[in-house]
Every structure is written in C-alpha cells, then in structure tokens.
C-alpha cells in the first residue's frame, strides 16, 4: 500500500517540497546501505535542512502512522538503514555543521551528518582528537556511529562510541525533542543516553551530539611481526595482556588476508607466513619505551620470524594501509565474499580460528581472517563464487560462524550491529524473555512501532526472508573507504 | 513519609542467588526496597514506606573470573572491595575508586547509584565497565543483556538503564565486568592552592602529555568548622599510573609543569592522601552532600557560589577533567534547593546524597527533558511501581503501592 497523495503533500508542506524526493528513480539511491544484498525502495526520501525540520518530519510520520528510517552515510554493514516498504527515509546528510569545538572543556558539538574524520579535523588545531576510529571514518557520520555504537582498531584502549558521547539531542518517535545525557558523565537518573547509543536507529533520531575529545598522545610506536602459526600470534596477544600492557591496537591477519592485502597495496607484509600481528602502543614517551621493549621480547619468545618496526609516520601509515586494505583486497582473490563480525573471548581465539578453518574445509570454501585480536572481534571473510553456485553454501557457513562465536561465549556482533542482517540470529544469543524485555524498552520510546521497524529484534515476517549475495559498497569499490 | 513513620517494620527478604531473588520478588506484594550494604541507603529521594526490603548482601561471590580475557562475572551483592582483593593476586582490578568502596559498597549498589571516583577521568563509571547484566523485574522476568566480551553491540544495553536507577527498575543480580591491569606503580603529585586557582593549574596538566588517571582538587576543610573556609585552602592532586621504570620520569616532568611548589607525595602517604579526598566526598554527620556535574570550566565558580560553600563548615572536591564535584554543605533545606537551582541554571545536574535524617530538602533538581521517556520505561518494566517507591519523586508520578497492610 503506497502513501496517499494527501500524506505526501503533508510532508512537502512540513519541510518544503524542495526537500522531499518522491521520484522512485531517485528514491532508488537510498534502497540499501553497506549490506547491499537487501534492497527496499522507500516511498519518499526526506532531506530536512535543520533539526526543527527533522522534528517536523517525524511529527508528520507520527500523525499519519508512517514508518521512518534515519540514514547517515549509508555505510552500515547490517542493513540498519534499509528502508521500510511504505515508509520514508529521513536523511541527515544536510545537517553537517560542526557547531562548536571547546578546547578548554575538550568537547565538540556536532550535527549528526558530520563525518567521523571531520570531528578530528576540527579538533586537531587544538592538539585534540576524537578517539573512536571506524575504518569507514572518511564517510560514515557521527549520527550513524551513535546509532551503531561503532568501534575501530583503537577501541581496545580507548573504548567505543558509547564511552565518548556525552549528550544527544533526540527527536523521539512522537516528534518531541529531548536531550539525553548532558555536559558531563554525571547525570541524575537512569542512563538513557547509554540505552540510545547502539540502538541502531530504533529509538529516535539524533539531531545534535556532544562528544569528548582527547589529547593527541605524545608518542605512537607500531610494529608488524610474522609468526609461524596463528596460535603463536595468539599467545603473543595473551602474554602482552598478561604483562599488564594495554596496547592502543592489536590486529591479526592470516595467510589469505596477508596475501590479498599485499597484492593490493604492497605494504611490506610477508606473503606466505601463517600469521601477522600489528601491535601499536601510544602514550607518554617513557611509558611507551619500556612497554615497547617488553612487546618485542614477547614476540621473540613466541618464535617471531620477522619483526618490522615502523621507523616513522610513513612506515606506520604503510603498516596500517596493509591492515585496512585486507578487507576490500579479498575481492582480488575471490569474486565474492560474505563478512561476519562475531566476537569471542580473547582466550578462545585459537580455538575459534581452528574451528572456522575446519568448517571452511567441510564446506569446500576458503575463509580469510582479519581481526581485532585484542578484543576478540573477528571479521571472517567467507570467499565464494556466485557464478559457481556457491552462494547458499557460503551464506550458511557465514551464519554458522557468527553463531559459533555465541556458542563459545561471545557475541553475534562487535561493531557492525544486528540490523536486518542478524536479527534472526538474536534468539541464539538471547532468550525469549531477554528479547521481550528489550521489546518493552523499545515500546517505551516508540509505542507505535514507527521508528526503524523490523531491525535488531527478530520478527516472524523478517525471519522468513533470505538476503541476496554480498556486493561491495560503491565507496569501497572506488577505494574511498576500506572495510575493517 | 518514610518507613520509620510506620508502626510495622517491613519484612526483610534475604535471597542468596538468582532463583531466590526471583522467588522473593514473586512471593512478596507491594513496595519493595532493594538494599545493598547500606552505604548509600539514603541517597536520592526518601523512600516511601514499603512492605519488604530485599537484602542483597547474601547474593555474593564471584561466578567466573577469566583472567586471560580480563572479565569477571559476579553476584551483585559482592562488596567491590572484596572482589578487588580476590582479583589482586592475578594483577587485575575493577578500575573504580568511588569513595564509599572503602565502606563495603556492593557492586550492585555502585551500579544503581552511578557512583564513581577520581579515576573516572580515564576509566569512566561502572556504566563503562559493565559488559553484561542479569536483572529480575517486578513481574519475576529474568532479563539478561550484554554478555561476557568487552566488545559487543548485540541488542539494547539494559545495563545502562540500571545504571543510576537507584533500585527503581529492577533487581540487579549478576554483573559481568571488564577488568584492567593493576598498575605496577602509582604516584601522586600535589600542589596546595585555593579553589580559585585550581582550574589554571589543572589546565597545564591537561594540556601536557602527562595522561593523569585522576585530577582533583579538594578543600583542606573537612567541614567540621574549625579550619579555613572550604574555598580558601585546598590541594590539587594529580595521580599517574604506569611502570616501575617510567613513572619517576613522568612524575618529574609533571612536577616541573606545576612549578616549584608542587611535590610528589611519598609512596607510603599516597593512600592516606586519597583517603582524605574520599572523606570529603562522603561528608560528615551534619552535612547535606550534593553530587553535581557541570562543564569543568564552570565548576569552580559554580561550587564557590553554592550557599554555605565558602565557609569552614563545608567540604568540597572537584574533578577538574571530569566536571564531577561533591559539596558537603551545612544541612539546610532551602540552601540545598537553591543549590539545585544554581547547578541547573549552569546547565549541570545534581543529586542529593547523605543528609541528616528527616532533612526534608529536595533530592533532585528540575526533571530532565526526557522525563516522559523515564516514566514510560518505568511503566514498561515496573507498572505497579513496586521498586523503590519515592526515590525519584517528584519525577516519577506513578501511584506508589505504599504499604499493602
Ligand atoms: C568499508 C566499511 C568499513 C567499515 N568499518 C567499520 C569499522 O571499522 N568499525 C565499525 O564499527 N563499523 C564499520 N563499518 C560500518 C559503518 O561504517 C558504521 O556502522 C557507521 O557507524 C555507519 O554510519 P553511517 O553514517 O553510514 O550510518 P548509516 O549506515 O546511514 O546508518 C546506520 C544506522 O544508523 C541509523 N542512523 C543514522 N543516522 C542516524 C541519526 N542521526 N539518528 C538515529 N539513527 C541514525 C540508521 O537508521 C541505521 O540504523 C564499516 C563499513 C564499511 C562499508
């Protein structure tokens, strides 16, 4: 059932006809996010110019019971910004002002369409930066980061989006405007800000966000180390942790991922080694010096076959380029791939990689591994060829890997979110009562169920459908962003 | 009305595990007060009379500690002090240093009151350290959220709802926490200065590469009335943590940045120094203790202007990086009402902690703009208003079940 003409014109009146797209061809540009296998063309796309217009648009939705989906840059990997049939998309792309940078109190106030990297760019002249660093940071928006509670390579030491957002102005699903959180972490009453963070656009739309800024660390030390086995590299991670060191980042790649990355960007990784680790420390010079020596000794102890220490910012950038390219580069060694985002307790890394390898062999498919070893967040890439009819097998393996993570005491998702993609796996991780309580909380924010319906929590309708194959995000194809 | 006004005392329920908590909730009727060690029993609004008190101090003990993963799951009634002493042999800790931990505060109580200490500058409060929770709701539903891994975005984060809920939404029974290494060494650099100068010194610390884990100013006055005015004399305390080899160099640089009057506290006096800070956070018998948060740059001025703050009868602490302060003020209901208003006018938030029995001043400032959502959440999780009736008065206007007998 399409939107009635009267409702369409009501939206045009509310926010200005020039800010509404109702041409189905143009609406098609909004049919999917980074999870390109799922596509739905929205009835209308609304492009409000300011927070008042966002509220006006949402009030219209509430009045006419029209479901709506907020959209930032559309880089989400779980189908969170997937439009709803018969609904509208509210794009925040025009709310992109940095409203304030306060170097004294170390915070920035942003509109939701500001990109992650623009925050750091605005803070840098003051020697400050915004810590969470998803590898899509050139394009993804702070509004999307808040919705997904996004992470990045450096969140092991510095925490996730939720640890860096102080407050948000939110348009609730009834169109009223509230502030969640405030000027400091100290807030009276239950932490609604924390509930909203990571709620994947299902509890309202943020129109203004205040984030904390950190001082740029005095030093950064980065090394790249090769190991004779994945488990040796895993032992290094364990020993670093056991030594009481909290690295800024610890990333691991296996043979297949190294091969793909090296072929793509020639960053100086050793092709053919079973495992490579990137370890980065940052902080005061004295501290980094001491701990870096300890890390090198731990690498040696576990049979490191080559240790490359970044001699300067350029070599450091090269190491990271290799690491970050691994994702998209897998496209060079396989026509198609699925990506997962499961998490296991760090101590089960060797075990889970072993089982993934076995599952891959049984399914007759290759799996490349690139992951945040420090916090156990895997990104297994299931390689397949759609042309060879492997899609269904690959999809099944990919789902089984996510569920294996849960079985090993972990989570379905470390940073990409549940969205449309994994909503049907939620019962593997949570019981019926757990999900029912989450549903109650959702209802407290959105009694009419209009705000991004069908995402996060499983619904019978959704869980009967099957996704299409994974296709690279257009920005990934053009090399603007990389997948981590 | 408080429970003390009633003739019959409430029944005390003493569960020992998840199952018995659930049974206690289901088998009782009417208002229910959830109690931990009692170190913050009077914080927030005065409780209405209740039928039962759910004493959580029997629901204790570590459920599973995974040293390699640096996580621990623990029963909510466990005193944090005890938990940390069990973790210490593994070189691990829960990085929370709230003042009342020394008095035996439980993990659940610390979460429910959103309490934190100076180290919140780096580690945040428990909201940032809790990675999983199991909660029993008023209808007996057992709800889990989060999990056992530090990185996890699956589902709504219900731990956040419990954080700061003061026992009004559900009973926290099990908590999974992220751990950090116990620092190899810590040291504290101190500089004596009045409140008015604290911000300037703090700026130099924050603008440098020192990475302090705590940056506080505290009044010399402990509020007992026989010293200088709380705003006039005090001490800036900067704590750094690190390795044996690196820390001396860092402390030297930090001292140099703060000028010749700065000193490094002797290792054997450091704990005492921070205990004195904690004492001011807790306040004394005649005090009404206000916890407040505001922009760090506005905080010293705001604090100095609170009624009674600039006297020897007050004790003050300020987190100059966190923007979180405590003011133990002479207990006067009107003064506290004015203090809430002043904090609110400066864009901050405030909550009343300990005060003399029967004090009568308001516990909270004006309701936040999202109070409608708070009420809706309360109605969704505890429709009959059983848990902690009165705690958030006048924000929650649910009809209290009061006493059924
Ligand atoms: C190549 C690539 C690499 C990536 N790397 C990482 C990574 O390293 N770490 C990581 O965590 N993620 C990563 N991602 C995932 C993605 O970039 C993040 O989830 C990001 O936060 C999404 O931001 P966005 O602006 O694109 O949001 P969108 O995709 O547009 O939306 C994401 C969700 O947020 C909601 N939303 C958007 N704006 C608002 C708003 N203002 N108010 C309320 N809800 C809103 C949407 O409804 C949707 O549910 C990667 C993605 C790609 C394609």
UniProtKB/TrEMBL annotation, chain A:
Residues 38-216 form the FAD-binding PCMH-type domain. It holds the Pfam family FAD_binding_4. Its cofactor is FAD. Keywords: FAD, Flavoprotein, Oxidoreductase. Gene3D superfamilies: 3.30.465.10, 3.30.70.2740, Vanillyl-alcohol Oxidase, Chain A, domain 4. InterPro entries: FAD-bd_oxidored_4_C (IPR004113), FAD-bd_PCMH (IPR016166), FAD-bd_PCMH-like_sf (IPR036318), FAD-bd_PCMH_sub2 (IPR016169), FAD-linked_Oxase-like_C (IPR016164), FAD-linked_OxidoTrans_Type4 (IPR051914), Oxid_FAD_bind_N (IPR006094), Vanillyl_alc_oxidase_C-sub2 (IPR016171). Coiled coil: none annotated. GO terms for molecular function: FAD binding; oxidoreductase activity. This is FAD-binding protein. It comes from Pseudonocardia bannensis. The lineage of its organism: Bacteria, Bacillati, Actinomycetota, Actinomycetes, Pseudonocardiales.
TrEMBL record, chain B:
PROSITE patterns: FAD_PCMH. The keyword Flavoprotein applies. Keywords: FAD, Flavoprotein. It comes from the Bacteria. It holds the Pfam family FAD_binding_4. Transmembrane segments: none annotated. InterPro entries: FAD-bd_PCMH, FAD-bd_PCMH-like_sf, FAD-bd_PCMH_sub2, FAD-linked_Oxase-like_C, Oxid_FAD_bind_N. The keyword Flavoprotein applies. Residues 5-182 form the FAD-binding PCMH-type domain. PANTHER family: D-LACTATE DEHYDROGENASE, GLYCOLATE OXIDASE SUBUNIT GLCE. This is FAD-binding protein. It comes from Pseudonocardia bannensis. The lineage of its organism: Bacteria, Bacillati, Actinomycetota, Actinomycetes, Pseudonocardiales.
């Amino acid at each position: 059932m399409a939107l009635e003409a009267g409702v369409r014109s009501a939206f045009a009146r509310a926010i200005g006809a020039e800010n509404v797209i109702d041409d189905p061809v143009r609406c098609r540009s909004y049919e999917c996010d980074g999870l390109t296998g799922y596509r739905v063309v929205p009835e209308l796309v609304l492009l409000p110019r300011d927070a008042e217009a966002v509220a006006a648009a949402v009030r219209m939705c509430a009045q006419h019971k029209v479901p709506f989906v907020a959209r930032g840059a559309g880089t989400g990997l779980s189908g969170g910004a997937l439009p709803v049939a018969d609904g509208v998309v509210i794009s925040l792309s025009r709310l992109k002002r940095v409203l304030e940078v306060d170097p004294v109190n170390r915070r920035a106030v942003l509109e939701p369409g500001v990109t992650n990297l623009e925050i750091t760019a605005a803070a840098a002249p003051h020697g400050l930066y915004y810590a969470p660093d998803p590898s899509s940071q050139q394009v993804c928006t702070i509004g999307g980061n808040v919705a997904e509670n996004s992470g990045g390579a450096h969140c092991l030491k510095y925490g996730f989006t939720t640890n860096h957002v102080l407050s948000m102005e939110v348009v609730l699903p009834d169109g009223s405007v509230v502030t969640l959180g405030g000027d400091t972490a100290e807030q009276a009453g239950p932490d609604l800000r924390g509930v909203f963070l990571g709620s994947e656009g299902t509890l309202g739309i943020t129109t203004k966000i205040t984030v904390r800024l950190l001082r740029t660390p005095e030093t950064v030390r980065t090394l790249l180390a090769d190991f004779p086995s994945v488990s040796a590299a895993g032992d290094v991670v364990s020993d670093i942790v056991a030594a009481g060191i909290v690295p800024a980042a610890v990333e691991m790649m296996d043979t297949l991922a190294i091969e793909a990355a090296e072929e793509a960007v020639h960053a100086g990784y050793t092709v053919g080694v079973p495992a490579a680790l990137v370890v980065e420390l940052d902080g005061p010079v004295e501290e980094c010096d001491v701990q870096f020596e300890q890390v090198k000794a731990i690498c040696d102890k576990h049979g490191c076959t080559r240790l490359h220490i970044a001699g300067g910012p350029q070599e450091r950038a090269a190491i990271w380029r290799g690491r970050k390219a691994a994702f998209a580069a897998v496209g060079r060694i396989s026509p198609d791939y699925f990506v997962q985002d499961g998490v296991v307790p760090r101590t089960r890394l060797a075990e889970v990689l072993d089982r993934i390898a076995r599952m891959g062999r049984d399914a007759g498919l290759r799996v490349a591994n690139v992951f945040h070893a420090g916090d156990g967040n895997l990104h297994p890439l299931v390689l397949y060829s759609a042309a060879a009819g492997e899609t269904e097998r690959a999809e099944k393996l990919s789902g089984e890997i996510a569920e294996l993570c849960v079985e090993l005491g972990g989570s379905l998702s470390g940073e990409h979110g549940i969205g449309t993609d994994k909503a049907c796996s939620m019962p593997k991780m949570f019981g019926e009562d757990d999900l029912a309580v989450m549903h109650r909380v959702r209802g407290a924010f959105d009694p009419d169920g209009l705000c991004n319906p069908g995402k996060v929590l499983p619904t019978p309708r959704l869980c009967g459908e099957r996704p299409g194959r994974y296709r690279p995000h257009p920005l990934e194809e053009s090399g603007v962003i990389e997948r981590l | 009305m408080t429970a003390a006004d009633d003739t019959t005392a409430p029944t005390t329920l003493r569960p020992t595990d998840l199952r018995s908590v659930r049974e206690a909730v289901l088998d009782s009727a009417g208002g229910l007060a959830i109690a931990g060690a009692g170190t913050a029993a009077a914080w927030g609004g005065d409780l209405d009379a209740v039928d039962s008190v759910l004493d959580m101090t029997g629901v204790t003990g570590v459920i599973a500690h995974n040293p390699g993963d640096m996580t621990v799951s623990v029963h909510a009634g466990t005193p944090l002090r005890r938990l940390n002493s069990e973790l210490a042999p593994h070189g691990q800790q829960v990085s929370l240093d709230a003042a009342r931990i020394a008095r035996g505060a439980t993990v659940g109580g610390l979460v429910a009151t959103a309490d934190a200490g100076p180290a919140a500058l780096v580690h945040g409060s428990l909201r940032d350290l809790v990675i999983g929770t199991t909660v029993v709701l008023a209808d007996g539903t057992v709800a889990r959220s989060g999990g056992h891994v530090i990185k996890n975005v699956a589902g709504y984060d219900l731990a956040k709802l419990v954080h700061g809920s003061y026992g009004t939404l559900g009973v926290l029974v099990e908590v999974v926490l992220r751990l950090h290494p116990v620092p190899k060494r810590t040291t504290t650099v101190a500089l004596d200065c009045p409140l008015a100068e604290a911000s300037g010194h703090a700026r130099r610390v924050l603008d440098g590469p020192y990475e302090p884990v705590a940056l506080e100013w505290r009044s010399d006055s402990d509020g007992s009335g026989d010293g200088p005015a709380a705003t006039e004399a005090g001490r800036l305390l900067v704590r750094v943590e690190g390795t044996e080899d690196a820390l001396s160099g860092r402390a030297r640089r930090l001292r140099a940045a703060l000028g010749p009057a700065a000193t490094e506290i002797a290792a054997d006096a450091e704990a005492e120094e921070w205990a004195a800070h904690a004492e001011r956070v807790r306040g004394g018998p005649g005090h009404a203790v206000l916890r407040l948060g505001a922009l760090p740059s506005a905080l010293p001025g705001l604090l100095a202007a609170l009624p009674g703050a600039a006297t020897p009868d007050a004790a003050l602490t300020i987190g100059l990086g966190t923007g979180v302060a405590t003011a133990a003020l002479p207990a006067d209901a009107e003064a506290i009402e004015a203090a809430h208003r002043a904090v609110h006018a400066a864009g901050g938030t405030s909550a009343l902690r300990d005060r003399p029995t029967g004090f009568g001043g308001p516990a909270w400032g004006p309701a936040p703009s999202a109070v409608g959502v708070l009420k809706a959440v309360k109605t969704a999780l505890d429709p009959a208003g059983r848990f902690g009736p009165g705690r958030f008065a006048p924000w929650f206007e649910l009809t209290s079940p009061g006493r059924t007998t």
